[in-house]
Design goal:
By secondary structure, the protein is mainly alpha-helical. 65% of the residues lie in helices and 4% in strands.
Length: 270
């Protein structure tokens, strides 16, 4: 017996949906493991949007960490420029942290400086640490809290630079990376683990020694970022993974970011 499609009334069909039994044309039917289902049944069987988002979040991996690494690499490539061109150097100068420029109203440098690197070794070392620490913290905190932690540490690093060396061009992700070090260390401590008996503790100690031994390294960025990440990470890691904890964690990071940013701007002004 030939009937018309339930959706396209002018289309005759001899087929029907194996789930609901309604007659449907070929345009409305989609092959299924058993038979063919109409588009309405497929839509009804689809999980709610919130569930799909949670499932994607659980399987997508460290999206924020990878995104931060990608942005750093892109900025580095842009600052390389063409051989013999002054464009790259100019862009590097415009993005780097410099106290007098911040005092003149270029507040964006407080953040942009965290994505500027001056050599391939500089960015390679920072990105390796960022990725290793990021995949640990992002899975523990979630994307929003991890992003908040990163930028709070970055701003605290900028604050430290303007406290100690405001008249020197400064850049690099190391302030934020030291903040991630601090967050991981305090998280281990909260679990009763002796940080210095782990690779994290040893690596952090080595990097702190290098901060004071190697000339040209920004002590303010490292110490400021470490302090900010330790405080922010410690507060975040006390909370369980829930929507309320995520909101509180983001608010903590936002508050610390605002305080560090406002403090940096205030210090930059004579």
């Amino acid at each position: 017996m030939t009937t018309t499609c339930f959706h396209h009334r002018d289309q005759e069909t001899g087929r029907s949906c194996t789930r609901c039994g309604r007659p449907a044309c070929s345009a409305c039917l989609h092959e299924a493991p058993v038979g063919a289902h109409c588009w309405e049944c497929i839509k009804a069987a689809r999980p709610p949007a919130s569930q799909r988002v949670r499932r994607w979040n659980a399987t997508a991996g460290p999206v924020v960490t990878i995104g931060l690494v990608a942005v750093n690499v892109i900025v580095y490539v842009l600052t390389l420029g063409q051989p013999g061109s002054s464009t790259a150097a100019s862009l590097t100068d415009r993005l780097s942290l410099y106290g007098p420029a911040v005092a003149a109203g270029q507040w964006y440098r407080l953040v942009s400086s965290g994505f500027v690197h001056y050599s391939i070794l500089h960015i390679a070392f920072n990105m390796l640490l960022l990725y290793q620490l990021g995949i640990m913290l992002e899975s523990e905190l979630g994307r929003w809290r991890f992003a908040g932690l990163y930028f709070a540490a970055l701003l605290c690093g900028s604050f430290g630079v303007l406290v100690l060396t405001p008249d020197t061009l400064s850049g690099g992700a190391s302030g934020a990376v030291f903040g991630l070090f601090g967050a991981v260390a305090v998280g281990l401590r909260q679990r009763g683990i002796n940080v210095m008996q782990t690779n994290i503790g040893v690596l952090l100690a080595i990097n702190l020694v290098l901060t004071f031994v190697i000339p040209g390294i920004s002590i303010g960025a490292h110490l400021g970022g470490l302090a900010g990440g330790t405080v922010c990470g410690g507060l975040m890691l006390r909370e369980r993974s829930s929507q309320a904890a995520t909101v509180r964690g983001v608010l903590v990071a936002a508050a610390l970011t605002l305080v560090a940013g406002a403090g940096a701007v205030a210090i930059a002004h004579p």
